[in-house]
């Protein structure tokens, strides 16, 4: 048998090497757009991929986070070769990252207002909110919850209903005071409130605790299986995300986008309202949150607390509104007074119109 020449061996090795190399076309999803990275060598590493992404998007490699490019459950490091990752041509990769100019713009400290002068449209807290709810890294976390958080449905969405999301602790229930039973710590008018709201709203309970505690509290308060209304589902702390804000630092918040992403045909920013006693829980959805007065020291405040009674009226009045994002929920009490004033004025006008008119005076002869 004749041994192959060195040239033949060299050519065979080249062919084998070329056959082991394939090219990838990858789609990068960033900032609401798709960017194509074509003809990427599978022997390239993640760093090379990031450099190609930089050419398309202008986001520097060190700023990029490729959310679903993972190996062994972790985000793939820069030195990782693409052929060691289970990735196919046409794969869509979600990227989080910002351009240098955008980071510089967001880092600018707003000018101080003159002493005693109030900003017309935003206070400092709302200014922080406007930044947080649009940051891509936070939106990516919301999308992660939409994709991976499992909701245990208790009742189906009802067509045409708006959405009411409720906190538990200090909103519906005084969870710190001592009592012989949970009923003693229930906020006054709770069942009346939920029954009234259920007419126009699907109801979701979202608490920053474990699911077992949510289920236990709802059972103790006789909310879980109440015949007068139905709860659609519960959300616990696993559905929340962490965000960084200049005012609060790193905090956990309740992004309504998790629900909207799960039920895009039913709920959105135009028909959703959330009650919570902690305002920062609204940071991802500042226009959809209403800060309720906390219910504490139940034994002392039981007879005086009428918050849910008044909020029932507010929910009834705004159920007629097409777009909740145009409402300022901070002024909910003024909204009620204005609505009641209009009703009284209308009723007074109707009574006047219905009163018998005096007969016309007879003309003198």
TrEMBL record:
**Extent of the signal sequence:** none
- Cofactor(s) listed: Mg(2+)
Reply yes or no: does the keyword Ribosomal protein apply: no
Q: Which GO terms describe its cellular component?
A: nucleus
This enzyme catalyses:
O-phospho-L-threonyl-[protein] + H2O = L-threonyl-[protein] + phosphate; O-phospho-L-seryl-[protein] + H2O = L-seryl-[protein] + phosphate
What keywords does the record list, in alphabetical order? Answer: Hydrolase, Magnesium, Metal-binding, Nucleus, Protein phosphatase
Gene3D superfamilies for the chain: HAD superfamily/HAD-like, Phosphatidylinositol 3-kinase Catalytic Subunit, Chain A, domain 1
Q: Which residues form the Ubiquitin-like domain?
A: 24-102
Q: Which GO terms describe its biological process?
A: regulation of proteasome assembly
Q: What Pfam families does the record point to?
A: NIF (PF03031), ubiquitin (PF00240)
Give positions of region: Disordered.
341-365
List the SUPFAM superfamilies hit by this protein, alphabetically.
Answer: HAD-like, Ubiquitin-like
Task: Report the principal subcellular site.
Answer: nucleus
Q: Which InterPro entries does this one have?
A: FCP1_dom, HAD-like_sf, HAD-SF_hydro_IIID, HAD_sf, Ubiquitin-like_dom, Ubiquitin-like_domsf, UBLCP1
Cell location? Nucleus
EC number(s) reported in the record? 3.1.3.16
Q: What is this protein called?
A: Ubiquitin-like domain-containing CTD phosphatase 1
Gene that codes for this?
A: UBLCP1
């Amino acid at each position: 048998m004749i041994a192959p020449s060195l040239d033949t061996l060299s050519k065979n090795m080249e062919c084998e090497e070329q056959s082991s190399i394939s090219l990838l076309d990858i789609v990068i999803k960033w900032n609401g757009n798709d960017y194509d990275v074509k003809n990427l060598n599978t022997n390239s590493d993640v760093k090379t991929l990031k450099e190609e992404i930089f050419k398309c998007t202008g986001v520097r490699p060190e700023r990029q986070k490729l959310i679903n490019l993972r190996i062994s459950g972790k985000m793939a490091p820069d030195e990782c070769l693409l052929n060691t990752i289970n990735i196919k041509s046409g794969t869509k990769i979600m990227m989080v990252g910002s351009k240098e100019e955008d980071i510089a713009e967001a880092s600018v400290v707003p000018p101080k207002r003159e002493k005693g002068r109030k900003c017309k449209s935003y206070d400092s807290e709302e200014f922080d909110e406007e930044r947080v709810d649009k940051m891509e890294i936070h939106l990516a976390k919301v999308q992660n919850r939409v994709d991976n958080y499992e909701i245990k449905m208790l009742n189906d969405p009802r067509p045409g209903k708006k959405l009411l999301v409720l906190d538990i602790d200090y909103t519906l229930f005084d969870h710190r005071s001592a009592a012989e039973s949970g009923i003693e710590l229930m906020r006054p008018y709770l069942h009346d409130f939920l029954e009234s709201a259920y007419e126009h709203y699907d109801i979701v309970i979202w608490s920053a605790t474990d699911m077992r505690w949510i289920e236990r509290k709802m059972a103790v308060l006789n909310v879980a299986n109440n015949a007068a209304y139905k709860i659609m589902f519960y959300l616990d702390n696993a559905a929340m995300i962490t965000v960084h804000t200049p005012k609060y630092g790193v905090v956990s918040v309740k992004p309504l986008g998790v629900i909207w992403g799960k039920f895009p045909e039913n709920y959105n920013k135009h028909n959703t309202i959330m009650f919570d006693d902690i305002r920062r829980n609204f940071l991802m959805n500042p226009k959809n949150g209403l800060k309720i007065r906390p219910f504490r020291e139940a034994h002392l405040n039981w007879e005086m607390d009428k918050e849910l009674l008044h909020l029932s009226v507010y929910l009834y009045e705004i159920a007629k509104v097409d777009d909740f994002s145009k409402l300022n929920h901070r002024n909910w009490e003024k909204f009620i007074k204005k609505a009641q004033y209009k009703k009284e004025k209308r009723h007074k006008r109707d009574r006047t119109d219905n009163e018998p008119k005096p007969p016309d005076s007879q003309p003198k002869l």
